[in-house]
Amino acid sequence: MINTIVFILLISGIILSALRVMKGPTIFDRVLGLDVINLIIIGLITLLAMIYKNELYIDIVIVYSILAFIETIVFARILEVQK
Amino acid sequence: MNYIGNILIIIGSFFYFVGALGLYRMPDFFNRAQAGTKATTLGTFSLLLGVGLINLVWLPKLLIVIVFVAITNPVGSSVLARSAYRNNVEKCEKTQFDQMEGLYEKEDLNGK
pTM for the whole thing? Predict the structure, then answer.
C-alpha cells in the first residue's frame, strides 16, 4: 500500500521533469530537468534496495550521486565557456 | 522505528513530487532552479533517512550519501544558475530587482 503510493508519486515526478526536458525554452532548463531526474532516481534505487533487501543497491546509489554531480558541473562549465 | 521510517519515506516522496511540479509550473529559469533544487534536496534527505531507519545496518552508507547530496546539490544548482545568468537567459516579467546587475562587463556576457 505504502509502496504503491510512493512509487506513483516518484514516477509522476519523473514524468513532469521529462516534460520540462522536452519543452524547456533554453538548454539550461533541460540540464536542470536532468538534474532533478537524477535525484529522483537516487531515491528510486534506494527504495528498490529496501524492497529487494539487497545491500548492493546502496553502493550503486553512492556512485550514481557522484556521477550526477559531475554531469551537472560539466554541462554548466561547457555552456558557460562557449561563445 | 519502522513506523517513523514509513512516515519519513512518504514525506520524502511528497517533496520529490512537489519539486518536480514546481519545475514544471514556474515561469522562468531562475524560479525553476530554486523550486527544483530545494524541494528535491529535502526529499532526498527524508527518503534516505527513512530507509536507513527501517534497516539500521545500512544507515552509515546512507548518511554518507545524504552528506554528499547536501554538499554538492546546491553547488551544482548555483554553478548552473551563474552560467545561465552569463548567457543572458531572460527573466520573468515580475522580477523586482537584480543584485548581480553590472557585476559582469558587457563583453563578458555571451549572447545578445
Answer: 0.89
